Prior knowledge:
Elements: H1 2-12, H2 23-29, H3 33-57, H4 66-88, H5 90-96, H6 107-117, H7 122-152, E1 154-155, H8 160-163, E2 172-173, H9 184-187, H10 189-218
Antiparallel strand pairs: 1-2
Helix pairs in contact: 1-7, 3-4, 3-6, 3-7, 4-5, 4-6, 6-7, 7-10
Amino acid sequence: MSKEIIRNSIWKQNAGLVQVLGMCPVLVVSSNIVNGVSLGLATSLVMLVSGAAIAAIRQFVPNELRSPIFILIIAALVTVVDLLFNAYAHGLYVVLGIFIPLITTNCIVLARAEAFASRNSVWDSALDGFFMGIGLTMVLAVLGGMRELVGKGTLLSGIDLVFGPAAKAWTIYIIPADMHYQFLLAILPPGAFIGLGLLIAGKTAMDKRAEARAQSVRLPDAVPNH
């Protein structure tokens, strides 16, 4: 069961590439790897704890009050995450801005609470929530890397906002900094749409290839009778 939950969360039902939920932060925050991964991990943490909490109280919540109570739990957790960002990574907190509080209204968080956590055990719900968030984080990381590389010629820019000024040396310059390279189409929202479209197309192609390969194994070529 656990392996199936992980596989569904990361690949088969990936929030960014299959369900296409929570697209606002995906498209806006994914201008580089650091921003995308940071918001993705924050979302994963909220989904992990909210999934477990909702599964633990699901039998005591009346059907007509489910959504308000679920949103209240999620909002409380997001407030904690918001305060932690402000206290320990203030520079990143300023960059991400309103998108940390907006985790409360992210479709994927409430959708998993309604569709999974309200019907399954605490362990399975925590696992589903966490790996749904990790699946989204992977999309944000790849999309952010693509946009940052094409748009700025760098990787891991802004890493010092997480690990302090000493981490600024960790930034990888694919194109030398003195060239002042910049490709605005990749950095701006149109680049996010194009990049996400390429990722969705790539996943679809991989799934079709895997399905065709599986069918060829299950159905060997028929040998004509003479």
